[in-house]
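RecD helicase-like helix-hairpin-helix domain-containing protein structure dump, as promised
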Amino acid sequence: IVRYLTHRYRGVGEKTAKTLVERFGSELFAILQNDPAAVSRVVPANRAEQVLEAWGADYDRRTASNATTTGGTGDGGKSSSSRHRSRSRGRT
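structure tokens r here:
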């Protein structure tokens, strides 16, 4: 997961990635999706924002790719607006 984050997420270095993985482990991606405020409790706010923005772009890219290969929306019925509300929940 650390390697994925450092190579895919612009602005996320090894220290930030390791901190997130040590805290959340295999649940990290679920946390990014469902409880973004938790990220801010583990890393500085500016880093958390970078991680969450990169996660959003990665999620959108993966969802679009999934929709293309499956012929569906790729988002399990979620609309784009509900996905973005979910990601921004808990931010100040």
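Residues 2-88 form one domain.
lmk if u need the other ones
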